[in-house]
Amino acid sequence: RQAPTRGVRAGAGGASDIIVKLQGPHVPTLFEQAQHSARFMRSLDYLANVDVQIDTDQPEYQVRLDRTRAAELGLSVGEVARSLRTLVSGTVATRYREEDEHYDVRVMVDEASLALREDVAGLLLDRPGGGKVRLHEVAEVRPATGPVEITRENQVNQVLISADTAAVSLGEALSRLEADLAQVALPSGYRFDFGGQAQLMLDMQRTMMLIVTMALFFAFIILAVQFNRLKLPTLILLTLPVCLAGMVFALGLSGLALGATVIIGVLVVVAATVNDGVLLLSFAEQIRHEKGVSATEAVIEAACIRLRPRVMTSVSVMAGLLPLALNIGEGGDTLQPMAVAAIGGLGVEILAALLLMPGLYVAFSPRHTAPAFDPENPAPAPFGAGLG
């Protein structure tokens, strides 16, 4: 019989920055390895408040069954365990209903009657052939200590080690801890996993990558259908890594961590890049086939004409995000990384639309001049064929 629970409940501490899950089949070995790993983690200067979230010093009574004596009396280990579980923990015999609520009626030995070791040793067990036998006749009841509870994940025993970061970001601490724990020798069948805020960050990163990938895929499909070509959409999307690099630079310059709301800024930058690319390249194609000029002349003229609306659009969005980036007002902490990242990405997007995108258009366009459109012979080249 285990004493009432005291102290920190195993499995708690989800608010810690990093939760290291040590998983394996044998609980005593798990606790021994967890203590060793915790001492190693305390020696790392980028971690603080390292704690093993399991208490193995709770007083309890352990029952050591004499298998030979139990077999002589017709009792198996399973039957003894089931009888003790029913007597100590109880079994639901029926349910009591009061209006719309149902309550379990549990039959068990009164806890006050099991305060001493002799009380546990004197419990009566049913024999399969009839009759009763006391527990001390087939087993030894001894006082001991043990864990408050055994936690499992996917039916695998685990011990949790919590830690907070010290003077480093969560991502940096997690990457360094993964490399350091790889040097810790564990017995066969035991391994490390991660939880807490670190697990939430990894899940968020995977979700962000999935959303960005799907956004780029559908943007490419829509552009390919609009231009009826593959090269123009490819040229537009080739500028996206440069714009996303601007977002990372802005976050690094401001010292803000990558948050879940940054995905909104990514979508804003992707939409602005695709929109500006469509305006520029479609207009350049139109000028090229109407006037019969080279790709360089067409894209320069298109860039000059589209300069003002493109800059005004991007600058107005950046101005609208500025109060969030400066964290003006209450509740702006969550959206601040998104605003800073979007401003950085849009700033680089203006330069990419003015310089990089026209350069790519000229580099991948044919060198010859497209024939001018003849109103008397209306057979213009297919839209987008200038990159064919």
Task: Describe what this molecule looks like in 3D.
This protein is an alpha+beta fold and 388 residues long. Helix content is 50%, strand content 17%. Helix 6 (196-227) packs antiparallel against helix 7 and helix 10 (295-325) runs antiparallel to helix 11.
Number of strands: 11
Terminal CA distance reads 81 Å
Low-pLDDT windows of residues: 1-14, 372-388
Main sheet overview? 5 strands, antiparallel
Rg of Cα set: 35 Å
Helix content: 40-55%
Discrete helix count: 11
Order of helices and strands: EHEEHHEEHEEEEEHEHHHHHH
> Tell me, what's the shape?
elongated
Provide a brief overview of the structure.
The protein has 388 residues and is of the alpha+beta class.
Write the layout of secondary structure elements.
Blueprint: E1 18-23, H1 27-42, E2 47-52, E3 58-65, H2 67-72, H3 77-88, E4 91-98, E5 101-107, H4 117-121, E6 124-126, E7 132-134, E8 139-146, E9 151-153, E10 156-165, H5 170-181, E11 191-195, H6 196-227, H7 231-238, H8 240-254, H9 262-291, H10 295-325, H11 336-363
Antiparallel strand pairs: 1-10, 1-11, 2-10, 3-8, 4-5, 6-7, 9-10
Helix pairs in contact: 6-7, 6-9, 7-9, 8-9, 8-11, 9-10, 9-11, 10-11
What descriptors fit this protein?
single chain, disordered C terminus, two-stranded antiparallel ribbon, 50% helix, five-stranded antiparallel beta sheet, disordered N terminus, 388 residues, elongated, alpha+beta
